[in-house]
């Protein structure tokens, strides 16, 4: 952010110095240092067609410009959870029920102990190597001879 006065430019604050603050329900952005700066007050106008920026005052004591941005883009939007978040929550709940329910079942019905409490423990033990084999197979099938060229050439007879 810079000030232009009588043909001269002066830096008031930079993106690196920006800090968000909340005062009395308003969100503001502070730019600059303790010696010089600006405070940009964000004012939400939900159905505004145009945005406006006003200089409200210059605080001489603190050497800060007080500005106000009135715009629909200054409104906080609360959209709730998106589809990915909902799927992740459902998946986490299913995994938790599977693990805890399976452990309870293994303990009560089969009187299992330690690692044997984990439902389908052999499947989980072999999963990393099976995943590696599946990925290598997929890469081999998809790339074919384009990815790996043979180090040998045919002999000319």
TrEMBL record:
GO terms for cellular component: Golgi membrane; trans-Golgi network. The keyword Membrane applies. Keywords: Glycoprotein, Membrane, Transmembrane, Transmembrane helix. The chain crosses the membrane at residues 86-106. It comes from the Eukaryota. This is Uncharacterized protein. It comes from Eptatretus burgeri (Inshore hagfish).
